[in-house]
Design goal:
7 strands, 19% strand, seven-stranded parallel beta sheet, alpha/beta, single chain, 8 helices
Length: 216
């Protein structure tokens, strides 16, 4: 006898995610779910993205972490609305968690919500949050072989950010092999080369995202 516990959880999550997606659409809010490992530079990429887009769009950030509010405080210090979700050990955000954060935001005044999911390359891929797109960040120090080890996250991403490219000379990172692996898994996803803390490559990524928001 086999009991499937995962599917009922996903079914419940997806139903609420559909409701969230409808709320976002009604309020003309574009939602980006950022997936990455711890230390890949998610928060620095968000801060750089905010700086590039804040003159055109009203932005809020939802921070997902197992514990602490360090990243949310960084966002708030830039004058951006931020809501912290502490999962208490869960390795991903779920739509029920997101709904609680959304309920404290004024959607009518927002154009863009960036979700920083819990640092993990596996669990978050299964959970729909009602977002418009999922974007995956990989940093150079993590290695070029990650698409081979964690293909799922690269397959669902509508864009891939390769962060910390300024450290390329220090690490044994085969960028050609990385690009080939990503394109085999997801031929449609663009790859953006960033050094977020140095504002390198941010404009190209921000321009792409801004166009998606305008089209939506």
């Amino acid at each position: 006898m086999r009991i499937d516990l995962k599917q009922p959880i996903l079914d419940k999550n997806d139903k609420l995610a559909a409701e969230l997606r409808q709320r976002f659409a009604e309020n003309h809010v574009y939602v980006v779910d950022l997936l990455a490992s711890p230390g890949s530079g998610k928060t620095s990429t968000i801060l750089a993205t905010i700086e590039a887009l804040r003159d055109e769009f009203n932005i809020a950030v939802i921070e997902g972490d197992i514990a602490s509010s360090v990243d949310a405080e960084k966002i708030k210090s830039q004058g951006i609305a931020a809501v912290q979700i502490n999962t208490g050990g869960a390795c991903h955000l779920e739509s029920a968690m997101l709904k609680r954060a959304i309920d404290v935001l004024d959607l009518e005044r927002l154009d863009l919500i960036i979700i920083e999911n819990v640092g993990n390359l596996v669990c978050p891929t299964d959970f729909d949050l009602g977002e418009n797109i999922k974007v995956m960040i990989l940093s150079v120090p993590e290695g070029h072989d990650k698409p081979l080890k964690y293909p799922g996250v690269f397959q669902i991403a509508e864009a891939v950010i390769l962060n910390k490219v300024d450290t390329m000379p220090v690490f044994d990172f085969d960028e050609e092999a990385f690009n080939d692996s990503v394109h085999q898994l997801n031929p449609q996803a663009p790859i953006f080369r960033l050094a977020a803390t140095k504002d390198q490559g941010v404009a190209e990524w921000a321009d792409w995202l801004a166009e998606r928001i305008r089209q939506a």
